[in-house]
């Protein structure tokens, strides 16, 4: 996971949690839901970044194998 991806997803998770808590304290259900949604978005970004890294690793491994087989 790149540093930018990690910062972006962490920002969403932290900001979402803050909004969720604010919504609970002020009894603002819309704000609470917005926070939960933003937190879920941050977690989804983590998963997407992990998947992207896994695909990149797989492609790199296949390229290495093909290069090795060509020699």
Shape: rod-shaped
Order of helices and strands: HH
Strand fraction equals under 5%
Number of domains: 1
Low-confidence stretches: none
Please explain how this structure is put together.
There is one protein chain. This protein is mainly α and 71 residues long. The chain has one domain. 93% of the residues lie in helices and 0% in strands. It is built from two helices and no strands. It has helices at 3-26, 29-70. α1 (3-26) runs antiparallel to α2 (29-70). The longest helix has 42 residues, at 29-70. It starts with a helix and ends with a helix.
Short structural description:
The chain has helices at residues 3-26, 29-70.
Topology summary:
Layout: H1 3-26, H2 29-70
Keywords:
single chain, mainly alpha, 93% helix, CsbD-like domain-containing protein, CsbD
């Amino acid at each position: 996971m790149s540093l930018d991806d990690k910062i972006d997803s962490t920002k969403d998770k932290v900001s979402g949690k803050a909004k969720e808590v604010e919504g609970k304290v002020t009894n603002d259900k819309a704000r609470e839901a917005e926070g939960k949604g933003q937190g879920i978005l941050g977690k989804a970004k983590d998963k997407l970044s992990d998947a992207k890294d896994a695909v990149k690793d797989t492609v790199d491994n296949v390229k290495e194998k093909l290069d090795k087989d060509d020699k």
